[in-house]
Write a structure and sequence with these properties.
Length: 418
């Protein structure tokens, strides 16, 4: 409910409070009590907020909900944002002898947001979007995100980009029946504007550029914007952000409304990734080489992958690539390699990989390979985990067999049972 945060020492009260908070973090609540309680009684709002929350939480080895709430109110009445937000949280909690009240919670969150603080505005928006303050609040949430974004608040700009790009689900009730409207808030032009504001922001995080590039390239309104998405991906790749290779290759593999499938561009992206030692690119070229029966290229990519990888999880992904290729000689080779390199840990990784396979028939073919490593006992951690994975596999396959025999479940059967 409440996190101790560092405070700048601007006056002696802040210095004293900061020292007391450090004592609490060290588990010395008794030593901190006198300082925090005295500062709170002197009317210092920051201390009143902490003291109120600590009394409610029982930090001092006793709990005083009513008294703690009174101190929070005193701090909130002085305009302390954290006190306002914590008061709102208190009205949403299930603390004994304190009745929840969504309206009062909303009022306090709104009071904090209306101070103009962008973090408080975003907090209220998140409360609306999470529906902790009830349903039908999506438009109000967007309005507060806009207010925070208008102050160039970076998290708000990201949230706004997501809302305008993908929309949110609007929920309301007719009687006791929930009603849904998907894509509420989508706006292509505003998405572009929010994306440009993020890219021109002083923060400029590569992962956020990737988020924007993905949305631009895959939207269905403008060919020019789609090409801008590709240009952003190329910019990221040229600046060493390897996850952009995966996105670029995926786009050229499946195509989008404005970006056609282009095998040559896909291969170029992977080859560039290989030159930079990117495991994702090496693994996918390994998979493609197996599909094309290019044993020389497959061997080269496998060698490069094993040279660059160091964990059982990495080699588990290499097994996945072999499974996706449908080359069972390669599958057997990868299973043997994982076991040789990682022994028991490798065997468990094989079980996890088989669990992740989406096709029932492939999983049936893989299961005996996993069972061949059965330790025959379950008194060790390895034995317990092995049997846990095996039981999960058997249960899932039993359920999936029922789905595959039910012709009315065509959507579920399409990928699972082919």
């Amino acid at each position: 409910m409440f996190t101790i945060t560092a405070m700048p020492a601007e006056d002696p009260r802040q210095t004293a409070l900061a020292s007391a908070l450090n004592l609490i973090q060290e588990g010395k609540q008794d030593e901190a009590y006198d300082t925090i309680s005295t500062l709170a009684d002197e009317g210092y709002a920051a201390a009143q907020t902490y003291y109120g929350v600590f009394l409610i939480q029982g930090v001092f080895n006793f709990q005083e909900v009513e008294e703690g709430f009174a101190y929070l109110q005193k701090a909130a009445d002085q305009g302390d944002l954290r006190a306002m937000i914590q008061t709102g949280n208190l009205y949403l909690s299930r603390i004994p002898n304190f009745a929840p009240n969504k309206k009062k919670a909303t009022d306090w969150f709104k009071k904090a947001a209306e101070t103009g603080n962008p973090e408080a505005q975003m907090y209220l928006a998140e409360m609306f979007l999470s529906r902790k303050l009830g349903t039908g609040q999506e438009s109000r949430a967007i309005a507060y995100v806009v207010k925070a974004a208008d102050q160039n608040h970076y998290p708000a700009l990201k949230q706004l980009f997501s809302i305008y790009g993908y929309g949110i689900t609007e929920i309301w009730y007719l009687g006791d029946q929930p009603q849904y409207k998907y894509g509420h808030g989508k706006d292509h032009g505003k998405m572009i504007d929010a994306g440009n504001r993020i890219m021109n922001h002083e923060v400029r995080r590569p992962e956020d550029f990737l988020m924007i590039a993905r949305a631009y390239a895959r939207q269905d309104k403008s060919a020019q914007v789609a090409q801008e998405g590709i240009a952003i991906l190329e910019f990221l790749i040229n600046n060493g952000h390897m996850p952009a290779i995966q996105e670029l290759a995926d786009i050229f593999t499946t195509g989008t409304t404005f970006i056609p499938v282009h095998e040559g561009n896909m291969l170029d992206a992977y080859e560039y990734g290989v030159s930079k030692g990117d495991l994702y690119s090496i693994g996918n070229l390994y998979r493609l080489s197996l599909l094309r029966k290019d044993s020389v290229k497959a061997a080269a990519m496998r060698s490069a992958y094993l040279k660059a990888s160091a964990s059982s999880a990495d080699q588990g992904r290499l097994l996945n690539y072999a499974i996706e290729s449908g080359d069972w000689s390669a599958v057997s080779l990868e299973i043997k390699s994982i076991v040789e390199n990682f022994q028991q840990q490798g065997i468990l990784e094989i079980g996890s990989v088989i669990l992740s396979v989406k096709n029932l028939n492939i999983r049936k073919r893989l299961l005996p390979l996993y069972q061949s490593y059965d330790p025959g006992e379950s008194k060790t951690q390895f034995g317990n985990t092995f049997n846990f994975l095996l039981n999960n596999l058997n249960q899932r396959m039993k359920q999936e067999s029922k789905i595959c025999s039910d012709e009315s479940r065509s959507i579920q059967r399409s990928e699972l049972c082919q």
